[in-house]
Amino acid sequence: MKKSILFVICLFTVLAHSQEIKPIPQVNVSGEGKIKVVPDQVTILATVETKGTNAKEVKKQNDQQMEAVLKLVKNMNLAPADYKTKRVSLNPQYDYEKKKHTYNATQTIEILLRDLSKYDELMEGLVDQGINRIDNVTFQSSKLAQYQSEARKQAMKDAKMKAEDYVSVLGQKVGAGFTITDNSQTYYPQPVYAMKSMSVESDSAAPRQTMAVGEIEIVANVSVSFKLE
Fold first, then answer.
1. pTM (2 d.p.)
2. Superfamily of domain 41-140
C-alpha cells in the first residue's frame, strides 16, 4: 500500500514538473552560401578496351596499349601520385547466334592533371596511344576546402539575416543558435570532350579550343534554429 501511494506521489510530481516546462521561443530558418570559382585542375577517367577471339592475344594487345598510355603520361612529367590504375578486367562473352566465345579486356586509368594548359595535349595523346573510352572528366579546384569553408560562413550569415528580418517585425531579437543542420552538396561541371575533334590533322595551322571550363559553383546549405529574446 505504501509503495502504491509513493508511486502515485512520484507520478503527480513528474506530471506537475512537465507542465511547468514551456516551449523555447525560437525561429527556424535556412541559409545558403554560394562561391563561384574557375577550376585549376581536372580528373580524367579513361579506358582502353580491346576485343577478340583469343583471350591471351586480347590481354596482350590491351597491355600494350595501356603501356603506351602510361609512357605518354610519364613523358608529360605528371607526378606518380597523380595517375593510377582503377580497374582491370578480362571477361568472356558468348555469341549464341555464331555459337562462339569472344573476350573483352579493359583497363581504366585515373589521371589528375594540375595544369589545364596541357589538357588538349593529354586528351589527344591518350586517344592516339589507344584510349578508346573517356568515362568521366571532372573539373576541380585545388582550394576546394577553403572555398567550402567560405560558403558555409556565408550560409550562416544568410540564415541569421533571415531570422533578424522575421523577428524585427515582432519587436524581438535573435538570440543564440542551438541547432545547426548542414544540408550541403558540392557539384562539379562535367563537360564531355568531343572525341571527333581529336581526329583533326595535327599539322592544322589554326589552334583549337576543345573545352569550356566554366566555373565550379560551391554551395553550402544550412538549417538553423535561433532562440528568441
1. 0.69
2. Protein of unknown function (DUF541), domain 2 (3.30.70.2970)
